[in-house]
Each structure stands twice: as structure tokens, then as C-alpha cells.
């Protein structure tokens, strides 16, 4: 420094100290400051050269593809992240997890991770998520051969129960499919469910076949008892017979 003169720039440089954190920051090439608001250079258009959107359809169009929602358009533009992370998560879990565990995981993804397209995730992994539903339906309900629609619907019901634990429901995640069956009205009450799924016609055929197998005495007693029931007479009957007379077969038919 030259005595008798003031050089503020040189004074600043002489007193400048760069510590290890700032040195590492500079070596890594990170920005040293921010601009708020950010300064963006606007493109200058000549008259007649403006390319602004003229409708909502234009806003949902990217690369000449019209998307269904603004969110999917943003995903296509790269403005929003896609659901690839959750796809990989469910793919790995589907290898080793049970259906109930997958339903729990899917509910966590819905409530905590905000996937972009939850319905697409459901369609892709519904088979794995509901892989135990057919067994549950056959075990808990009188439905020996549940259809694919029943399996998916009951799977949605179980997942909706998990969502309600977090204060959410399926309706909070459109366009997720909604329940079509009233499973909550019959779960835990097999008698009600059996009544709702009675196969009246097939049972009538079975009853008629059994009636044809009764002997004359059994037919007479059967007519008297059923007539009393149909006419609401409220009588009490005592059925007795020795071994080998078909008493057990007869009483089963009366039930």
C-alpha cells in the first residue's frame, strides 16, 4: 500500500479472506448470490409473430399432443415430476409383499407422497394389490367364484378403510374408481350377506329334487308342516323315527 493515497479497492482485496467453506463453494461452481425476483429476458416478437395460447386446449397441448389435464401437461413439459419413483417402489414391493401390505403401502403413497396420476398406479398394480382378495371373499362371504369386478371393488373397500384412518377417502383422489358395492353393510354379518346372495332359482330346483326323493309318509308330513308355515298357523311338530328310516334326511330337507 502506498502511503498518502487511499485505494479502497486495494484495501478491500488486502483485507479479503476466503475461508474453507467459501472456497469449497466456489470450487463447486455454486451461485454466490440470488436475484429476487429472478431477472428473465423476455423474447421480442415482431408484429404478427406472437404465439400465445388462445384457449384452454392450447394450454393443455404440448408437442402437438392434447393432454387430458393441466397436470399431465406439466408432467409432459417436465415442469412436474412423474410417478416413476412410486412405480419402482411398488414394483419392488410387489415381489415380496402380501396384498394387505401393498394396500397399506399404496395408501401411504396416496396420503403422504401426492402422486401425479394415482389412477394409473392403481391400474398398473391392482392385480398385485388385490392378489389375496379372491380368497378373502370366498372365506368371508358365500361367493365361491368372485368376479374380477367384485375382487377389485372389495379391494377398493379395504383400501378405503385404510385411507379413513388418515382422515381421507377414495373421493379425495380423483379419478380413482369409487365403490359400487355396499360392503360395509354386510362385513361382519354373514347372515345378512348370505341372505343377499341367495340363489333362489337354484335352491328351488334342489328342494324339488329332494321332495321327489321322499316316501309317501314323508311327503304327507312335509305337506302338513309346510302348509302350517305358509299359512302362519304357528304349530309345533315332533318328528321321530327309528334308525334307517330317513329321519335325518327328512329334517334336513325341512330346514
From TrEMBL:
This is ATP-dependent DNA helicase.
